[in-house]
Amino acid sequence: MKKFDLVVLGGGTAGLTIAKEAAAYGWEVALVEERALGGTCVNDGCIPTKTLIHSAKVMRYVRRASEYGIKTAPLTVDWPAVAGRKDALVRAMRENIQQSINDNEKVHFFEGSAFFEAPNRISVGDGLLTGEKIIICTGARTQIPPVKGLNEVPYLTSTTALELQQLPESLVIIGGGIIAVEFAQMFAAFGVQVTILQRSPRIIPNVEPELSAGIQAVLERDGLNIITSADIKAVQRNENKAQVTLTAPDGEKSLTADQLLVATGRAPNTDQLQLDKVGVETDKRGYIKVDHAFQTSVPGIWALGDVTGGAMFTHRSWHDGFLLARHFFKGETISTQDRLIPYAIFTDPEIAAVGLGEEAAREKGHTVKILSQPFKYVARAMAMAEEDGLIKLIVDEKTDALLGAHIFGPSAGELIHELAAVIRFGGKLFDLQDMLHIHPTLAEGINSAALS
């Protein structure tokens, strides 16, 4: 049995953040991970998917080259080279993370699956670890829906889709959220015939309706088939193809494709931890219940990142670890209540948002005014021939405080940070109106929206 000041379960963003901070303060840390360090982000999330998505974006640009007065040869995709570039980057990042842990004399790495023997005792492989403090950062995985026949048919997830050795000719995606839409547009750019089956009335239902409608129009213009309000009845294998039977608003349908991709949300990696043995409470989906300072129902045990549910973004997981470190090592009182978490969806054009949506703002009792600026009237977007989308600002009519900002358009993921800063520091509409923006830039659209 080995004793540590801190035992961290999970070597993703949250776990690595808190482990390295603890080591910097001289704590003896046990870091447990059953697969490669880096978590979902490095291994099968942000980094590999955005690398492929950027290759797809280049493909889309080249396909539109004639709009910019450029002539190109017949366009083909070298999928092994595209995938190889992704693999090389993931491997390099993974090796750098592993080396940083190997070089840290205060962090002791244990590879293997873990479960609780007692509130301060963890079983890993053939050994036992004890810690004064335990932090659970075991992340989440693809949630598989209870569709008839799905367990009998080979299917892809967002993880296994990254391992494809060759591109399919056709692909059906079950799900219409962030992951589904990013993968759909990426594969379509490489020439795959893609169909999205979305249970809700619109794709990416958590974003503002204008943004959801905008990206759907772009996807359909690119040739994707999108069926919303789809009720999937069954899946089966038919002559080496996946066959999906569903009911849509216009009647029953049967679709076939070379591959089936399931992208219907995430499930927490808590089922192997034996949390019930030590009394750590979870919700009905298995996510660990924590208070605003990441404390679980058991003193001495905290949980961070995706395993607690909510906004599953890498930057949120990093901030979880950053906040808890401030509590541990600086004695600060911390709280995630009303924390501002911006996010981006890496479609082309991108979607990004921060703060309240229009409906949520009204539900909170605000009298709101909506200001917007279409990118087709932004000079830089016009010069770039990237005119799809808009900037939408949600403002409190009584105080002129910026409550929320939503962007669908080029570089939305970069532009949103100015608006996040304004909300973070209590800025008013006048601040956006009065602040000079460089002309011609995409950010100038923010000023124009504020003046609208």
Which ranges are low-confidence, i.e. pLDDT below 50, for 5 or more consecutive residues?
none
How much is the average pLDDT? Answer: 96
Specify the CATH architecture of the largest domain: 3-Layer(bba) Sandwich
Q: Work out the radius of gyration.
A: 24 Å
- Major sheet characteristics: 7 strands, mixed
User: What is the overall silhouette?
Assistant: globular
For this structure, the CATH topology of the largest domain is FAD/NAD(P)-binding domain
- CATH superfamily of the largest domain, please? FAD/NAD(P)-binding domain
Strand content: 25-35%
The helix content, as a percent range, equals: 25-40%
Q: Supply the helix-strand structural class.
A: alpha/beta
CATH class of the largest domain: Alpha Beta
Tell me the number of helical segments per DSSP (H or I, 4 or more residues long). Answer: 12
| First-to-last CA distance | 66 Å
Give the number of DSSP strands.
21
Q: What is the count of structural domains?
A: 3
What does this structure look like?
The chain is an alpha/beta fold. The protein has twelve helices and 21 strands. α1 (13-24) packs parallel to α7 (314-330), α3 packs antiparallel against α4 and α3 crosses α5.
What is the element layout, followed by pairings?
Blueprint (H helix, E strand, L loop, with lengths): L1 E8 L3 H12 L4 E5 L5 H6 L1 H18 L15 H24 L4 E5 L2 E5 L2 E4 L2 E10 L3 E3 L27 E5 L3 H12 L3 E5 L11 H13 L3 E3 L3 E8 L2 E8 L2 E7 L1 E4 L3 E3 L32 E3 L10 H17 L12 E3 L4 E6 L2 H6 L4 E7 L4 H6 L5 E7 L5 E8 L2 H13 L4 H6 L9 H8 L1
Helix pairs in contact: 1-7, 3-4, 3-5
